[in-house]
TrEMBL record:
UniProt cross-references to Pfam families, sorted A to Z: CsbD (PF05532)
Domain CsbD-like, residue spans: 4-55
Organism in which the protein naturally occurs: Thalassospira lohafexi
InterPro entries: CsbD, UPF0337_stress_rsp, YjbJ, YjbJ_sf
Full protein name: CsbD family protein
PANTHER family, per database record: UPF0337 PROTEIN YJBJ (PTHR34977)
Entry similarity comment: Belongs to the UPF0337 (CsbD) family.
Domain of life: Bacteria
Amino acid sequence: MNWDQIAGRWKQVKGNVKSEWGRLTDDDVDQVDGQQDKLIGRVQERYGVEREEAERQVSNWFSRL
C-alpha cells in the first residue's frame, strides 16, 4: 500500500489512526485527509515530539498496514 491508496481509503483507515494515536481528535484526523505530511505534523503537535520521532512513528504504523 502507498500513500495514494491511504488517501483514497482514508475513511476506512481513520479508525486505525485513532487507535494508534489516541490524542488525535476527530478534527485532527479529518484534516489529515490521508496526507502523510499532515499526519506527521499532527502527531508531532499532539505528542510534543520532534519531527524525526513523529516521522518514525508514522513510518512504523504505515509498515504495519
